[in-house]
Amino acid sequence: MTDIPWSTGRWTHDPESVDEAGDSLIVTAREGSDAWRTTSYGFVHDTEHALLAPLAPDSAVEVSFRLDFAAQFDQAGVFLRVDDETWIKAGVEHSDGVDGLGAVVTRGVSDWSLAPVEGWSGRIVTVRASRSGDAVTVRARVEGTPGADDDWRLVRVAPLAPDAEVAAGPFCCAPTRSGLRVEFTAWRVTPADASLHPGD
């Protein structure tokens, strides 16, 4: 496991502000920032704040952040980008008053999956995206009681070309308000997961 310095990445779109506090990166999102293409809503939003660096095949990226959301569609996690129409964002999003763990996979148009995570607010969430073969596997966990909340949860398995040039790293968006501040506590690269299922 190798920590990635915050200075290594390049922003897709500059946040309102960026500050370092010890080992953490504090990012203030711009109001209206988001990433989405067409499906159901009919619009294309390409204004997310994603701090990206190259992600090689057969490797994984992990992003950790403190979950503290309050407004509709506040979101943070990990972003993987191939091009304007091929990207994945995965993490936690505040939707209809509830924090949900999920992913948006975009291949020309976006889809969205989300499942509620009770009791995660105020804690450190880690999202892991692992490239292996023709897929990326997204998992997440929250700091907590070992053997319970600390276990990795499978979030998504999505197609990703083995030879794709991918950049990945932390992201956040604030589609509906100003003042969202996200504390990112870690950005790491590791070897890809050995298998999709434990024990395989």
Low-confidence stretches: none
Helical content class: under 10%
Task: Count the DSSP helices.
Answer: 0
Measure the end-to-end span.
22 Å
Write down the secondary-structure element order: EEEEEEEEEEEEEEEEEE
CATH topology: Jelly Rolls
The CATH class turns out to be Mainly Beta
What is the CATH architecture assignment?
Sandwich
- Decide which structural class fits the backbone: mainly beta
Basic shape? globular
Radius of gyration: 15 Å
Number of strand elements? 18
Q: Tell me about the biggest sheet?
A: 8 strands, antiparallel
Pfam family, one: DUF1349
Protein name: DUF1349 domain-containing protein
Describe the structure.
It comes from Microbacterium radiodurans. This protein is mostly beta strands and 200 residues long. The chain has one domain (2-190): Jelly Rolls (Sandwich), CATH 2.60.120. The protein is 0% helix and 56% strand. It has no helices and 18 strands. The protein has strands at 2-3, 10-11, 17-21, 24-28, 35-37, 44-46, 49-55, 59-66, 75-83, 86-95, 98-107, 109-110, 113-116, 124-132, 135-142, 153-159, 166-173, 181-191. The protein is globular, with a radius of gyration of 15 Å.
